[in-house]
Each structure stands twice: as C-alpha cells, then as structure tokens.
Amino acid sequence: MAGPDDVLRRVRPELPEHLASPTSAAAQALLEEILSMQTTGPDVADPTPPPAPRNRSRRRLLVVAAASVVAFAAAAFVAIRLGGDDGPSDDVKTVPSEQPVPERTGRIRLTWRMRGDDVPTGEAVERYEFSGDDIAVSGAPYGPKSQQVVVDGQTYEYMPDLSQWPETMGPEAYDPLTGPYLWVRSTVTPPMPTVAHVDQSTLFDQLGAAGPFEDVGTDEVEGVPTRRVRATRPELTPYEVLKVSDPLAGSTATGLDVWVDESGGVLRVDMVFELTIEGDHIRQSLSIVWSDLGEPITIEPPPIG
Question: Where in the sequence is the domain holding 19, given as residue range(s)?
Fold first, then answer.
C-alpha cells in the first residue's frame, strides 16, 4: 500500500522532499506539535494514561493520521502557491499578462459632392493615412495640392507659398494648381481631431441616435463583405462623432447609410444633406470609406521649407 508521501509525490512531483515525506524533520516537527495540542476528543482528552500497548497503538495511528495531515497540508500549501486546479486563493493576487495593443492603422477616403439647380456639380476628395496618432492628409483644406502631416503631436502643413507670388497681383490671384507650395510647422497644438481619430469599431453605436436602422442588404467595401443599413431618422444623426467639416449652414440631413463588417466595425458612411436657398434646391453628400485597416503604415515628418 502506498504511503502518503508516495501519493503526494505522484500528484505533486515538484514538491520539495522536506514537505513530501512524513518522516522528514519538518513533518516530524509538525507531528510533535499536533500530538502536543489539546483536543476535545475523548481519546486524547482523557488525562489517565492508557496501558502501554494501547498507547503505542494509538500513537501509531496518530503518526499515520498526522503524516496524512502533513502530506495534505503540504499539498494544499503547494497548490495555493503554485496554482492548483481550483485556481489561486484569495491570498494570491494574479497579474494579467500585458499584451501589447496594436496601433490602429488604415486609410480613409472622404468625398464631398454638391449639386443644385443653379449650382454646378462640385467634388472635393480628402485622403487620410493613419498609424496610431500619426496622420497624413492630402487634398485638404487649401486646395488639390494641399497636404497635412501629424507626427508625434506636431502638425505640418503643405501650404501655398504666397511669398513667391508677385505682391502686385495680390494673394487673391494665386493659382492653387500652378502656384508654389512649401511645408511649414503649424502653431496648432495639439492638432485638431479629424476623421482619422474616429474609432470605426465603435462608430455604429455612436450613430445609434439616428436609428432604428433598416437592413438594405449585403455589399462589399474595398473587397470586404458588409451589411448595409439605413437610418430611419437621419436628421438626428450626431454628426459631430464623424469629426469632419460641417455641411452647408441651414441644411438638414435626409439620408444616412452605414456599411458594417462582420465584427461590427463601420467601413463606410454615406450622408445626404439638403437645403433650399432662394428657391434653389441644393443637395450635398458626404461619403467616408475605410480601407487597409491593420496594414503596416508609417508616417514620416516632411522637410520644412
């Protein structure tokens, strides 16, 4: 028959010898302490010494019992310290492993379009790249050649270089298509939030005030399968969560469509705004498309001047 130390050794092979064996000095010390303790049991509390043979028999039983106590106490101690099957005790505080959170990366295409009865159709496109808080923007806000870069909290802007334009012609004559540009450091610190700061993984919930949303069907956005939904109350859209420039003053949102991927992340938002000025009906639309999410993107500071 296997003894307590054999059983414990099979269960806890990593247990130190002085704790695993009931015949060790540590186990014997604990045994003597157990034998010297006052208990309420009738056999132990009896002050009259029993005959010698019975004493030896009782002591032998106590040795076996105490050895089992030592073995299982040691097993419980090791289970607590090393982590048993039932998990750590309240005395042991576990520290969750810190997994590095990958930076958000991706690209965004933002398109404004406007048309009206007496207004020529116009279109403006802004393109964003982002890697964490670093952002590169092209196509806005000063003209088709304009760019903006944010690296480590510093904003750089590629702006028309009016110093190279003849003063006699005045800045209003500057041609943004042919005129010179240069990179300058912006005095805006910190940089203004843009659509690149929008967390598209939670955006759909933020747009919830415009709901409920109707299912329009399945679609693909930049090759990614999505579910397209349409807001039933677009006029209640919390427009500020998109962090883009405002539509025409006085206009009302009359349409909001959202494309959501299988994880619940928004990959596209389309909005429509309508306005009537002096009988002229103007329709302005906004489209925001996310792509290349999670792809490696590096934003570098541009040369100044």
Answer: 4-82
Per-residue b or e along 142-170, where b marks 16 or more CB atoms closer than 10 Å to that residue's CB: ebebbbbbbbeeebbbbbbeeeebeeeee
Task: Mark whether 25 and 168 lie in a shared domain.
Answer: no
Query: What is the DSSP-derived secondary structure letter of residue 90?
Result: T
Contact 127, 106 (CB under 8 A): no
- Per-residue pLDDT of 80-115, as tens digits, reads 233 334 433 343 333 444 544 457 999 999 999 998
Letter for the amino acid at 229?
A: V
* Shared-domain flag, residues 74 and 140: no
**Rounded distance, CA 208 to CA 211, Å?**
5
For the chain, the domain total comes to 2
Strand bridging mode 134-138 / 105-116: unpaired
Decide if 302 is inside a domain. no
| 148 and 26 assigned to the same domain | no
pLDDT in tens, 225-247: 999 999 999 999 999 999 999 99
